[in-house]
């Protein structure tokens, strides 16, 4: 099975498609085992066991520049285009927008499902329109970015539209004018160290800096099986945040880092909570927590089972809940039926 966790799981059938018509034909084919499950590059997924249906993978790969205005350009991208390849293409053009999202694994269609984000940008900030196949009518449909219900690592494609629509292309608005986003995490400082300034930058310079930051703290799935950030950053009320701060002070953990969401909620880095509970660098059997980034659970030996990953997830969630009163939620999507349903 194609998955960046490198789990030894299998699907009953695997099918690729090159265009919307081919995808519709797959849904019409009565010989293909159901259910259907579309994937990108298999990142952000944990298969809980062998998949009984048909795995679908897009080979719709094109990048088309559309007419825009003087300050922006619209680009239509096939769902099967590797996301980082698109980031590299935009940076080479000198167009701003996706550079902070560089090196996020996966493909363009999956990026629009997940609303990927990093270093102050989310892909929803760039999306204009999403094209899909309606799996009920087998007709192509288009949705504006507003219709997609985007939120933090959320969209309607993950909720009420799940299984109904398969993304085939996404249109983005990129900026021709100078528009770097540097005010999140270590980006501004890293840019200044790399280029001697944080002014008069190019998209390629910001992209290269973001790639260096990510490579320094995240494992390469080709070397260590993982699904990227396993947990979402929890968003809590002001009262709950004050309680977390009090607990941290009592335990000598120092002040709690946070981000104001502007929605009367405070976002706490899940990595900080997990590290303070002692999980950073943890290893047991075939699984572990990456030593440089505690958000990442790893298939340390290449032989981990889905049950082992789920058991580690549950232990971390319980530990953070007991310590801080905050319940972590996985960002990784779980697919199929577990081998051990009691986990």
Notes on the protein architecture:
- The chain has a 5-stranded antiparallel beta sheet with strand order 5-6-11-9-10. It has a 4-stranded antiparallel beta sheet with strand order 12-18-17-16, covered by helices on one side.
- The protein has 343 residues and is α+β, with helices and mostly antiparallel strands.
- 41% of the residues are buried.
- It folds into 2 domains: 67-133 and 143-217, Uridine Diphospho-n-acetylenolpyruvylglucosamine Reductase, domain 3, CATH 3.30.465.10; 225-335, UDP-N-acetylenolpyruvoylglucosamine reductase, C-terminal domain (Uridine Diphospho-n-acetylenolpyruvylglucosamine Reductase, domain 1).
- Helix content is 26%, strand content 23%.
- The model has no long low-confidence stretch (mean pLDDT 95).
- α2 (83-93) packs antiparallel against α5 (203-217) and α4 crosses α5 (203-217).
- The chain is globular, with a radius of gyration of 21 Å.
- It has helices at residues 20-28, 83-93, 108-114, 187-195, 203-217, 238-250, 270-276, 306-324, and strands spanning 11-17, 36-39, 45-47, 51-58, 63-66, 72-78, 117-118, 121-122, 127-134, 140-144, 165-175, 225-226, 235-236, 259-260, 266-267, 283-284, 287-289, 297-299, 333-335.
- It contains 8 helices and 19 strands.
Write the layout of secondary structure elements.
Layout: E1 11-17, H1 20-28, E2 36-39, E3 45-47, E4 51-58, E5 63-66, E6 72-78, H2 83-93, H3 108-114, E7 117-118, E8 121-122, E9 127-134, E10 140-144, E11 165-175, H4 187-195, H5 203-217, E12 225-226, E13 235-236, H6 238-250, E14 259-260, E15 266-267, H7 270-276, E16 283-284, E17 287-289, E18 297-299, H8 306-324, E19 333-335
Parallel strand pairs: 1-4, 2-4, 3-19
Antiparallel strand pairs: 5-6, 6-11, 7-8, 9-10, 9-11, 12-18, 13-15, 14-15, 16-17, 17-18
Helix pairs in contact: 2-5, 4-5
């Amino acid at each position: 099975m194609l998955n960046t966790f490198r789990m030894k799981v299998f699907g009953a059938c695997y099918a690729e498609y090159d265009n919307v018509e081919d995808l519709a034909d797959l849904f019409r084919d009565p010989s293909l085992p159901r259910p259907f499950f579309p994937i990108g590059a298999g990142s952000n997924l944990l298969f809980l066991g062998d998949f009984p249906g048909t795995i679908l993978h897009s080979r719709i790969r094109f990048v088309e520049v559309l007419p825009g205005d003087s300050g922006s350009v619209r680009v239509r991208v096939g769902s099967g285009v590797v996301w980082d390849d698109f980031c590299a293409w935009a940076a080479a053009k000198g167009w701003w927008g996706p550079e902070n999202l560089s090196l996020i694994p996966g493909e363009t269609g999956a990026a629009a499902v997940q609303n990927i984000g990093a270093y102050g940008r989310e892909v929803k900030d760039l999306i204009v329109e999403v094209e899909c196949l309606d799996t009920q009518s087998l007709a192509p449909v288009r949705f504006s970015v507003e219709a997609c219900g985007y939120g933090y690592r959320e969209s309607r494609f993950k909720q009420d539209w799940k299984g109904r629509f398969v993304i085939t292309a996404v249109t983005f608005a990129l900026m021709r004018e100078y528009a770097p986003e540097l005010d999140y995490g270590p980006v501004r400082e890293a840019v200044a160290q790399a280029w001697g300034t944080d002014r008069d930058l190019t998209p390629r310079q910001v992209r290269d800096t973001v790639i260096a930051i990510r490579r320094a703290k995240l494992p390469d799935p080709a070397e260590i099986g993982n699904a990227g950030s396993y947990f979402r950053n929890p968003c809590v009320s002001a009262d709950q945040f004050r309680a977390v701060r009090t607990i941290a002070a009592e335990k000598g953990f120092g002040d709690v880092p946070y981000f104001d969401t502007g929605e009367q909620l405070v976002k706490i880095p899940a990595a900080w909570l997990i590290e303070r509970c002692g999980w950073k660098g943890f290893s047991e059997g075939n699984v572990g927590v990456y030593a440089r980034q505690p958000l990442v659970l790893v298939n340390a030996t290449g032989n981990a089972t889905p049950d082992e990953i789920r058991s580690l997830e549950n232990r971390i969630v319980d530990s953070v809940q007991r310590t801080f009163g905050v319940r972590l939620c996985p960002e990784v999507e779980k697919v199929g039926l577990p081998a051990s349903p009691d986990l």
